[in-house]
C-alpha cells in the first residue's frame, strides 16, 4: 500500500486536471510497473513503459525490449525509454497521452477515456482504443480497482490544496522590452498575464503576480517574490525580437541545468498547447529550449519562460494586435498551466465550470479593489468579470 500512498496525490491532481479517473491511473500503475518494482520503475520512475519518442529531450534509460516481426518471430533490441525525476512526471505523461492522443494520428483515439465517472466504462474505453495487447488487461484493471478500493481516490478529486501559481509579465515601467510595429512588449505581456490569471483563478488556482500595472522590477525581485510566496510554479511571459525581420516562431525556456523531471514535463504541456495555436496560423515552433536566464536560475520551484513570437516580424506583430488571436493564446496558456497543476478543465462548450461558492469568493476578492476605483471604466470592467464568473457557476447575472 506504500506504493499507492506515494502515487495517489499525483493521480488525483493530474487525473482531475485531465479528466482521467485516478482509480484508472493507479490500477495501470500497479499492473504495468509491478507495484513500482519493474526495471523501468526502479531505474527510471517510468511506470507505463513510455518510450523516448521524437518529442522528448530529457534523460533516457536504455534497456533490452522484445519486439515481434509480422511472422510472429520475437527478437530483442535496445530501446530508449523516458526517465523521470519522480513518479509524477510519468503520471503527467500518461494523462497527456489520454488528452492528446498518440501524436501521430489526426484524431485522439483515447477521447472516450476522458470525463468518465464509471471506472468500468473508462477501462473499456482504454481497451477499445487498443492501449494494450493483453486480452485480460481490462479484467486485471477491474480486479485491482475493486480489490484495493481505488475508487475512493476518485471521490477525493477536488479536495486537494489550491496550487499557487505566479505569473510574471516581463519588463515594465522604464523598461519597455521589445518594441516594433507600433506596440511594446511590456504592454502586450501584461494584458496576456492578467487575462491568463483571471482564467486560472476561475478554475480554482491561487494566482500571484510579479506586477499588475506598468512598473519596473529587477529580475532578482521577480525571482525573490516567487520564492517568498512559496509558489508551486512560476511562468514568465515575454515577446521576442531580432534585427532580422524574418525571424519568427514561438519558443519556451527552462533553466539549462534541468534534465527532465517535473519542470521539463510542465514546459512540454504548456508549450504544446500554445504552439498548437501558432501552428494553426502557420507560425513555426522554434522548440522547447534551455538557457541560463536569471528568473529561471534564481527561482527554486519549476519555472518556465514563454516567448510569444517576434514583435520585429510584421506578421507576428499583427497577430499580437488581433484580439481574437490573443484570446486563443490566453486560453491555451491557461489550459496548459491548468493541466499540469491539477485544475478544472474547460467544459465541452468552452466555458469554465465552477461552483457558486468559489465564484462568489473570487467576485468578493476582485470587488475589494475594483469597487474603490474612481473611474467608470474600471467599475464596468469589474461588473463584466463578475458576470462572467456568475455565468460560469450557473448564477444569474446582475
Automatic annotation (TrEMBL):
Residues 2-154 form the Mannosyl-glycoprotein endo-beta-N-acetylglucosamidase-like domain. It comes from the Bacteria. The keyword Hydrolase applies. InterPro entries: MGlyc_endo_b_GlcNAc-like_dom (IPR002901), MurNAc-LAA_cat (IPR002508), N-acetylmuramoyl_amidase_3 (IPR050695). Residues 223-338 form the MurNAc-LAA domain. One of its GO terms (molecular function) is N-acetylmuramoyl-L-alanine amidase activity. GO terms for biological process: peptidoglycan catabolic process. This is N-acetylmuramoyl-L-alanine amidase.
Amino acid at each position: 500500500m506504500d506504493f499507492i500512498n506515494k502515487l495517489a496525490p499525483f493521480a488525483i491532481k493530474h487525473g482531475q486536471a485531465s479528466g482521467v479517473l485516478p482509480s484508472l491511473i493507479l490500477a495501470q500503475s500497479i499492473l504495468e510497473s509491478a507495484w513500482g518494482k519493474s526495471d523501468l520503475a526502479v531505474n527510471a520512475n517510468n511506470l507505463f513503459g513510455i518510450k523516448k519518442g521524437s518529442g522528448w529531450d530529457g534523460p533516457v534509460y536504455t534497456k533490452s525490449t522484445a519486439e515481434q516481426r509480422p511472422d510472429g518471430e520475437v527478437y530483442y533490441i535496445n530501446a530508449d525509454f523516458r526517465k523521470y525525476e519522480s513518479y509524477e512526471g510519468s503520471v503527467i505523461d500518461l494523462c497527456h497521452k489520454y488528452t492528446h492522443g498518440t501524436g501521430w494520428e489526426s484524431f485522439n483515439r483515447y477521447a472516450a477515456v476522458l470525463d468518465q465517472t464509471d471506472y468500468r466504462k473508462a477501462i473499456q474505453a482504454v481497451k477499445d482504443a487498443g492501449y494494450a495487447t493483453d486480452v485480460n488487461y481490462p479484467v486485471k484493471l477491474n480486479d485491482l480497482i475493486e480489490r484495493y478500493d481505488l475508487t475512493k481516490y476518485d471521490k477525493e478529486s477536488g479536495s486537494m490544496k489550491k496550487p499557487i501559481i505566479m505569473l510574471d509579465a516581463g519588463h515594465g515601467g522604464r523598461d519597455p522590452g521589445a518594441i516594433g510595429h507600433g506596440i511594446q512588449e511590456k504592454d502586450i505581456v501584461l494584458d496576456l498575464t492578467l487575462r491568463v490569471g483571471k482564467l486560472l483563478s476561475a478554475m480554482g488556482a491561487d494566482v500571484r503576480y510579479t506586477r499588475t500595472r506598468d512598473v519596473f522590477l529587477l529580475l532578482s525581485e521577480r525571482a525573490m517574490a516567487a520564492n517568498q510566496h512559496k509558489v508551486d510554479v512560476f511562468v514568465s511571459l515575454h515577446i521576442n525580437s531580432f534585427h532580422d525581420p524574418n525571424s519568427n516562431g514561438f519558443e519556451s525556456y527552462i533553466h539549462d541545468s534541468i534534465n527532465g523531471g517535473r519542470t521539463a514535463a510542465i514546459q512540454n504541456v504548456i508549450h504544446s498547447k500554445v504552439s498548437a495555436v501558432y501552428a494553426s496560423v502557420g507560425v513555426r515552433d522554434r522548440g522547447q529550449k534551455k538557457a541560463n536566464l536569471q528568473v529561471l536560475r534564481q527561482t527554486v520551484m519549476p519555472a518556465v519562460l514563454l516567448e510569444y513570437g517576434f514583435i520585429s516580424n510584421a506578421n507576428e506583430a499583427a497577430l499580437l494586435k488581433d484580439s481574437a488571436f490573443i484570446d486563443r493564446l490566453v486560453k491555451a496558456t491557461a489550459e496548459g498551466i491548468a493541466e499540469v497543476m491539477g485544475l478544472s478543465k474547460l467544459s465541452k462548450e468552452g466555458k469554465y465550470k465552477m461552483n457558486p461558492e468559489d465564484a462568489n469568493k473570487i467576485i468578493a476578492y476582485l470587488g475589494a479593489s475594483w469597487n474603490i476605483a474612481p473611474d467608470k471604466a474600471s467599475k464596468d470592467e469589474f461588473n463584466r468579470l463578475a458576470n462572467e464568473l456568475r455565468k460560469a457557476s450557473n448564477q444569474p447575472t446582475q
